[in-house]
Amino acid sequence: MLSRFSSRRHFDDLSEQEILALAISSEEDDARIYRMFAAKLREEFPASAAVFDGMAEEEDGHRSRLIEMFRSRFGEVIPLIRREHVAGYYARQPVWLEPDLGLDRIRAVAHQMEEAAGKFYLAAAQRTTDARTRDLLGALAQAEAGHEKRADALEAQHLTDDVREAEDAGARRQFILTWVQPGLAGLMDGSVSTLAPIFATAFATENTMTTFQVGLAASVGAGISMGFTEAAHDDGVISGRGSPWKRGLASGVMTALGGLGHALPYLIPHFWTATTVAMIVVFVELWAIAWIQNRFMETPFLRATFQVVLGGALVFAAGALIGGG
């Protein structure tokens, strides 16, 4: 209702000429998006890039047919009507503008684009009483359904099982390099490096609030430091590790969480209860780090356990001895 008083036209108020112009601009936009996807994927995932090249060509073909239809009915001048000009038309989030859009996300977005367009045109055709407009929208719905089938055929042509497996493995590797590796480094740093100051403060003061404040400061400070260090030391261009800001975010957040895990128990006012809970949290943190190393970094579990648990135990002992002395 409010859309009728906005600067946008409502879809129900568009003429057949305007609906057809909107369809033409939408097909043109989709072709550009698919070409952008292809350009993003071409270096690392050439087979998937070929799929999106084919989908862009399909959109070009449909746009040409729509232009021919427009010329035959309304002449040479096509009104410039785009999605953002129309209320009640399906909207798309500009996720394709993200600089590091992953392969799986691109595939999902492309499927959503075709599915949303097909459903919209079909629903619009069912609500239309004018016979010619109904035929037009029905044809557009069929075209979008055809796009989905064509996309499946292009994937079958270019993406064999071996190629898809190789590309999926590459995407998994990129996920590990961009998110898991810096996040794991941050979790290890936050969990281990804050053990000494937190437990040294705990045993030196036996004051839970003071210990919590020291733990909070150490965790937040370490998170900020690790985040900026990760983002600044490698822009990802040569190493291929992905966006520095994504890596910095993963490292910074996980560093802070690693320290906060055994700082938060000191909100418990009873010292030995808080210390016991903190020790249990440390145990869980160290085993979680060992599991992540084994699961994503393919480090043998026993070796990961030995490295993490031994290192954590030594830092904890150092903090306890310093604080207890």
**Element order: H for helix, E for strand:** EHHEHHHHHHHH
The strand line-up of the biggest sheet is 1-2
The average pLDDT score comes to 78
Provide the domain count.
2
Shape: elongated
Total number of helices: 10
Rounded to an integer, what's the Rg over CA atoms?
28 Å
Beta percentage is under 5%
Low-confidence blocks of residues: 1-5
Euclidean distance between termini CA atoms: 73 Å
Helix and strand content put the structural class at: mainly alpha
User: Strand count, sense and closure of the main sheet?
Assistant: 2 strands, parallel
Portion of residues within helices: over 70%
Report the strand count. 2
Give the SSE map.
Blueprint: E1 9-10, H1 16-41, H2 46-74, E2 86-87, H3 103-127, H4 131-158, H5 161-193, H6 195-205, H7 208-233, H8 244-263, H9 271-296, H10 301-324
Helix pairs in contact: 1-2, 1-3, 1-4, 2-4, 3-4, 5-7, 5-8, 5-9, 5-10, 6-7, 6-10, 7-8, 8-9, 9-10
